[in-house]
Write a structure and sequence with these properties.
Layout lengths: L9 E10 L3 E2 L11 H14 L5 E6 L2 E6 L1 H9 L4 E7 L3 H15 L4 H15 L3 H8 L3 H9 L5 H9 L4 H7 L5 H14 L3 H17 L14 H17 L5 E6 L4 E6 L9
Parallel strand pairs: 2-4, 3-5
Antiparallel strand pairs: 1-5, 3-4, 6-7
Helix pairs in contact: 1-2, 3-4, 4-6, 5-6, 8-10
């Protein structure tokens, strides 16, 4: 399975012209929405120049099943083409599903909701862990985890995010709120006011502030660090002091879309002569 994403096995004929009525759609196609106006534009282009990039298909019970290229296939049918260029791949259902997802990711054809649901479907259908799925899709595990977290939002909230042209980062901001109703109410305000991502983050901060700022009875008020840079500067200074004292402490910083990962390594024994 590992080689399928880098070196697909071509059928004997390579690129072949196949009748469009012999090609069935991919049942695991992650893309669910197709813009009619964009399809019409692609259809006009195909009518003028033909299908430039071949579709990929696999043999399936005496017919051909689409692996990737459903948008091109739909547009070709709209343009009245009887045949389209295809590459026949020798792949099974799992490999076909994975290739369909990879192709859409590479073309950036999926919206954030289709991408999240597509990843979740792959993991569920083939028993993949987040780490394995990320590896096969060529994504970081943190990126996959962030996509999957969005699915914790109610379906109506996810649909409203997409329908109103909001982004994945708007959705991640809503996840900070404690329950479905508070998320729905916040989303209604975000849509009504047309808030961008930064404004949405500040709005969610304001919703959480009373709860965060009010000390609970019998408990000490916890210190909330507002600027992570202050923490990093303090940490760097402490490590410098350790190094001057002969302790070879290591520091590694990795930044993702959502988090800053800091790794500190401190040897248990000081070097000889230290």
């Amino acid at each position: 399975m590992q080689s399928i994403l880098t070196r697909p096995r071509l059928g004997r004929a390579g690129i072949v012209q196949l009748p469009v009525n012999e090609i069935d759609p991919n049942p695991n196609q992650p893309r669910k929405l197709f813009d009619d106006s964009q399809l019409a534009e692609l259809s006009a282009s195909i009518a003028e120049y033909g299908v430039i990039s071949p579709l990929t298909v696999r043999l399936h019970f005496g017919r051909y099943e689409l692996v990737a290229g459903e948008r091109r296939l739909r547009a070709a049918r709209m343009a009245g083409l009887k045949k389209v260029p295809c590459i026949v791949l020798d792949v099974n259902m799992e490999e076909s599903s994975m290739l369909a997802m990879v192709e859409n990711l590479q073309r950036q054809d999926l919206d954030f909701l289709e991408e999240a649901r597509g990843i979740a479907n792959l993991m569920r259908m083939y028993g993949l862990s987040q780490e394995e799925c990320a590896r096969r899709l060529g994504r970081s595990q943190s990126s996959v985890a962030n996509k999957l977290r969005l699915l914790k939002l109610p379906d109506d909230v996810l649909s409203a995010l997409r329908d109103n042209g909001l982004t994945e980062r708007h959705g991640r901001a809503l996840l900070r709120l404690p329950d479905a109703e508070s998320r729905r109410a916040a989303l209604a305000h975000i849509v009504q006011e047309g808030l961008n991502v930064a404004q949405t983050d500040r709005y969610v901060d304001s919703l959480l502030a009373p709860e965060e700022d009010a000390p609970k009875p019998g408990r000490k008020r916890s210190f909330i660090l507002k600027d992570v840079r202050v923490f990093l500067n303090s940490l760097t200074h402490s490590l410098d002091v350790m190094k001057k004292g002969g302790i070879d402490a290591g520091f590694k910083k990795e930044e993702t879309d959502d988090e800053l990962i800091v790794t500190i390594s401190i040897p248990k024994k000081r070097p000889a002569g230290g």
